[in-house]
Write a structure and sequence with these properties.
Helix content: over 70%
Order of helices and strands: HHHHHHHHHHHHHHHHHH
Distance between the termini: 18 Å
Strand content: under 5%
Largest sheet: none
Amino acid sequence: MSENAGKGGEKTELQRQLGLPETLSIVVNRIIGSGIFRTPAPIMMITASVSMFYGAWILGGIATMLAALCYAELVAMIPKSGGPYVFLKAAYPPVVTFLRGWAMFFVSETGAIAAVALFFSENTVSLFLSGPAKLPVAGLAIAIVMLLTFINSLGIKLSGKLQNIFSLLKVAILVLIIATAFSRGIHTAHFSTGATAVTGWAAVQAVFTAMRYCFFAYSGWEGATYVAEEVKNPSRNLPLSLFLGIGSVMLLYLLINSAYINLLGPGAMAASKAVAVDSMKAILGSAGALVVVGAIMINTFSNVNTQIFVKSRTWFAMSRDQLFFRRLASLHPKYKTPNYALYAQALWAALLIAFSTLAQSAYEAVIDYFSFTSAVFNVLTFASVFILRKKYPSLARPYKAWGYPFTLILVLLIQITFMVVTLTTAFIPSLLGIALTGTGLLYYRYCVPRSVKDEATETPL
């Protein structure tokens, strides 16, 4: 059997050089980025309650794990590169698949790269400049995206090794922060919830509004599915990496959020512009702040690296299917990496970074911009589990979603509620995301071959 064939014999142009350690590292690296160092403050501000704060994080974690049950079934059944794009392609007409890929490129996925690169840059520039520094921040963020794109263009083996190194560093850093935060005892008064400020629908709206930032902090858990054709034994290693990675990160997130509360208390935490830095400063002084800034730089740098690595495979898969710019389907003759897809992704992320400088808070603005659009296509992706069971009942499913159909119904209810709340609380940014997604219809009408539009998928494999 060729080294580029999976366990079932499916062949690919790409090279299968990623084992379970690498796929697990991709999941961990994609999840742990800027979110856990930045989003706890706005989440605490929105919920205004310790119990609701934990509720948002726990509900976000449960929703993520339920989503992973769906993805595990899908990726074990269809172990092809491209992530959700591939699952939608098997379940829906080509126009739906195309719009998801178009939105991923122009709205959600490059938007996430831009957001994390900006956070890395903000923290790095803060070490040298104390005043407003939008242009230096944007310039450094763009430079980082370009540098990491170049590194990832040099082959899958190098990218895989980087995933392992960075994931170990990330976990070690978070454990160190947690241990330090509780080294002088537990401030029980900080964990007292007190009277909840809101109840009823207002409380539901507060939790789901906060979950916009929780979901961003958990986002990326599906990252390994984007590189399915480069994973050894994907039907086993991909589902396993999802469950191990998400479960580990959820535990770490609950512990580190408890560390922030223990050191700052809910009031100071909600008011903080840099919650991780302020937490360590409270116990270690300025030296603690420097340690956390270093930790943030390592985490966000590696997260941007992983995003660049995995997401470029979607644009490659789309182009291979003639649903995107044809040139992006080319592989480098030596490294077998989709370099045109990598650099197209980098250029659009750089443009988003440049435009984000017009907003008062670039980081939150980018998240608000892509959250609603992502939620719409997430609902469609999860629903594809049901559709594909009806459409291809005899297709081999090495893993079946636990608790189906109840787990699927639950994750859909959570996502739909989140989608509605996001639209009402971030209306203008959501409209921008919808509008940019809608521009894809012009490309689809005039640039996608009719043979592709009329094509009926006989089998997703």
